[in-house]
Write a structure and sequence with these properties.
Layout (H helix, E strand, L loop, with lengths): L1 H12 L1 H14 L6 H25 L7 H5 L16 H17 L2 H20 L5 H14 L13
Helix pairs in contact: 1-6, 2-5, 2-6, 3-5, 3-7, 5-6, 5-7
Length: 158
């Protein structure tokens, strides 16, 4: 029972601190004169990642059922009623992590977010709602969206 709670906290609960810490960094660590440009890039990166994820999911699904369905058990975490590729949870928090890194250059916050992202990915796999491929797909697609940050001036976050 305790391990189920830990898995659920990793798989679902760790998303909350990512959102809160990411919001803090993106609101308070981007200089006022740079926010419009930064928020525009963040929006475009997020929309690009979401579009790529939906296209990838429509084209490629490694399995028609999630791991818990294949094993005939119950899901250990929240999930959407779809085959699961890519992981929406991991895509979302990876996109937040990329936004914080590229727009704020806050190393400590970014390292914490990366750790939480890894924890959520592991939790999603242990909860049997995703495969490693689903989780890795979420990260890779978030990085594709992060291509919007390539032209960020290195001094814009200082």
């Amino acid at each position: 029972m305790t391990s189920e709670i830990i898995v659920r906290i990793l798989a679902d609960g760790a998303v909350v601190p990512v959102v809160l810490l990411g919001a803090y960094a993106l609101i308070f660590k981007i200089p006022k004169g740079k926010r419009l440009q930064a928020y525009t890039r963040i929006l475009l990166a997020g929309l690009t990642a979401y579009l790529v994820a939906k296209l990838a999911g429509a084209i490629y699904q490694p399995a028609s059922e999630r791991p818990f369905e294949l094993l005939g058990t119950v899901a250990g975490a929240a999930y959407l009623n779809n085959p699961g590729f890519p992981s929406d949870h991991v895509l979302f928090i990876s996109a937040i992590t990329c936004a914080v890194w590229f727009e704020t250059k806050q190393k400590v916050i970014t390292v914490i977010l990366i750790g939480l992202t890894i924890a959520v990915g592991i939790g999603r796999i242990l909860a049997l709602v995703h495969t490693p491929t689903d989780v890795i797909g979420g990260v890779v697609i978030a990085l594709i969206g992060a291509l919007w940050y390539l032209n960020v001036d290195a001094h814009s976050a200082k």
